[in-house]
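Bumping my old thread because nobody answered last time. Still need a sequence for this structure:
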């Protein structure tokens, strides 16, 4: 067996240079790692793939991340903000279909201030006490994360985007920095959330060394969830003419992450399904065990245009769970509608 794969499978720590060599030589070890990834996933979680209902409740954002179609400089996007009643009505619909996790995602919207988001979390936990609430609304002071945790939020997704400070500054405006992002992730973990970080694959200027640093960061931070998906250009951003990431590299990295962090909750992301109709299945075959179909009201789905041609119909739509169930079955797994907590964080 390849010595780097052997080390990874034995749970030994890899240096950044070793991760880089593994990525560069991926064609030789891709199949081996994917099959090992499926084995460890089965050992920890069985053959289950968990489903989360994704509610994109606002596309207003004060930030200006260069890659994202919701950036504040993009005046072409039609902005929307769901009311509390609208969010709750989507939860009711999702609960009836069987969803037991709601993921509230949005831009950093000044009008959805911390108290208002806390109120929304409280209302969801009151109406659906057996459900988990995941927040994914960006960078806030520790006190705000504490407020939302007290309100009942269980999990938080905040991708680190890249673990290299210079690369981070190439993807973000000068007002944002990697140190702030890392401080948020540390705070979230310390408070008690199940925490997800992650990155885009194939973002502009990304090298194998950057990806190796991302893997090294995951190895040290040990998040409960990792969201990775291909970068996809958006036509109204400065990166409109850039090349997007590939299924090939994304699925390889999914396998590495699964083997390195056996109990991680790892989504086969919408971005993967957007660039390849078979992307979700390939993600699951590579070791993913979470899918997040879209539970937002149908008339706003296209407005949450973080990248071009975002998949929001078919298997991506919460209304089409039978299709998704079949896709998951074809990938050798079983769809599970439970809360799907991290194995070491079984609820609160
Ligand atoms: N505003 C919150 C944040 O930034 O964490 C949550 C919403 S943001 C749209 C969620 C994720 O979308 C980001 O972390 C980023 O990785 C991803 N994203 C944004 N633009 C993208 C693009 N052009 N291609 C692929 N993923 C993208
Ligand atoms: Fe806003 Fe998130 Fe998009 Fe950045 S990635 S512009 S914070 S929605």
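Sorry it took so long. Here it is:
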């Amino acid at each position: 067996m390849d010595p780097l794969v052997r080390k990874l499978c034995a749970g030994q720590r890899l240096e950044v240079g070793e991760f880089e060599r593994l990525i560069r030589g991926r064609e030789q070890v891709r199949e081996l790692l994917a099959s090992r990834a499926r084995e460890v996933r089965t050992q920890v979680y069985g053959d289950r793939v968990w489903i989360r209902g994704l509610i994109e409740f606002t596309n207003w954002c004060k930030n200006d991340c260069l890659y994202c179609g919701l950036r504040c400089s993009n005046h072409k996007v039609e902005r929307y903000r769901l009311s509390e009643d609208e969010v709750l009505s989507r939860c009711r619909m999702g609960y009836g279909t069987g969803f037991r996790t709601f993921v509230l995602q949005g831009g950093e919207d000044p009008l959805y201030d911390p108290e208002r988001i806390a109120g929304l979390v409280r209302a969801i936990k009151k109406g659906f006490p057996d459900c988990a609430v995941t927040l994914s609304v960006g960078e806030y002071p520790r006190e705000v994360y504490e407020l939302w945790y007290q309100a009942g939020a269980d999990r938080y997704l905040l991708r680190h985007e890249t673990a290299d400070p210079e690369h981070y500054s190439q993807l973000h405006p000068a007002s944002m920095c990697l140190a702030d992002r890392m401080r948020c992730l540390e705070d979230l973990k310390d408070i008690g959330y199940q925490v997800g970080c992650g990155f885009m694959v194939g973002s502009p200027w990304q090298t194998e060394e950057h990806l190796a640093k991302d893997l090294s960061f995951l190895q040290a931070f040990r998040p409960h969830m990792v969201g990775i998906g291909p970068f996809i250009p958006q036509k109204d951003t400065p990166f409109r003419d850039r090349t997007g990431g590939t299924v090939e590299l994304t699925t390889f990295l999914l396998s590495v992450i699964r083997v390195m962090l056996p109990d991680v909750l790892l989504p086969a992301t919408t971005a993967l399904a957007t660039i390849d109709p078979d992307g979700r299945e390939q993600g699951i075959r590579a070791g993913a065990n979470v899918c997040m179909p879209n539970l937002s009201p149908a008339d706003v789905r296209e407005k949450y245009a973080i990248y071009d041609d975002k998949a929001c119909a078919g298997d991506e739509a919460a209304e089409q769970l039978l299709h998704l169930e079949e896709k998951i079955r074809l990938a050798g797994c079983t769809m599970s509608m439970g809360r799907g907590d991290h194995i070491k964080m079984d609820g609160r």
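The chain has a mean pLDDT of 96. Let me know if any region looks off to you.
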